């Protein structure tokens, strides 16, 4: 039997239920994995609340790291005993063991722990594809605006951006978060709760604005994000922590300087095998070499899943949040 978090209806954190479940053998194209650690992401709250469509009853979570115990027919990319991590596939990562498709798995470098992998596979690969793929005109020497720069994805995105030669203006809500963002490479800080973000961006860029804005907040920051762009800049809608982005007024994008808006999805940037290998190679190579530091701000057990979601939604965490199970 394995311990797993199940969802029987959508709603607040209290709908999460911890149960003992039977885990079967892997079928064709599947693996049986024992988790060493599990990612707890803000996106998980979207599934739990029903903002992202789900069909209860179902599992929870899309990111984990652990050891392959067995493989099903036709699985050749991994073998029993391999250390792996993943993001994607059916919901169900909140479990001590699970059967899942082999396709989303990445082999882990030997010196990357399960905790580090669970804290950074989704976040790190997301930061990587945002910065490398969503704005083809973005290049070394450009300036970007990164909202929630001290969040789980934000701290990794800061480091990826610096590896790519970018100047980073980050928004944060507190001095504590500002210090952490600066420590990992953020060049300039804007306190979004007490400063006019777009006005400060103009000050910091000589009136020009930034080439790209990475906005994981959504509704509350959308207008300021648009006004922070330079002519023909790109607003990348990475998340909706404050609520969905408003409907896009095409005329306003013209008035703002012929700017672009994209709301990217992880799966669309990892569907092509060559692109997947490029992005994963960049991320795991830098991670294994120690050029990227993963900040784990909070650790919970699966039994504490309700509190973990409450803390995520209250913005109490800095860096990544994980569930620990032990290696």
TrEMBL record:
GO MF annotation list: mRNA 3'-UTR AU-rich region binding; NADPH binding; quinone reductase (NADPH) activity; zinc ion binding
Keywords per UniProt: NADP, Oxidoreductase
SUPFAM superfamilies the record matches: GroES-like, NAD(P)-binding Rossmann-fold domains
Cross-referenced PROSITE patterns: QOR_ZETA_CRYSTAL (PS01162)
KW Ion transport (keyword) present: no
Keyword Oxidoreductase set for record: yes
Name of the molecule in the record: Quinone oxidoreductase
Pfam families referenced in this protein's UniProt entry, alphabetically: ADH_N, ADH_zinc_N
PANTHER family: QUINONE OXIDOREDUCTASE PIG3-RELATED, QUINONE OXIDOREDUCTASE-RELATED
Xref: CDD domains: QOR2
A GO term from the CC aspect: cytosol
Residue ranges of domain Enoyl reductase (ER) in the record: 11-323
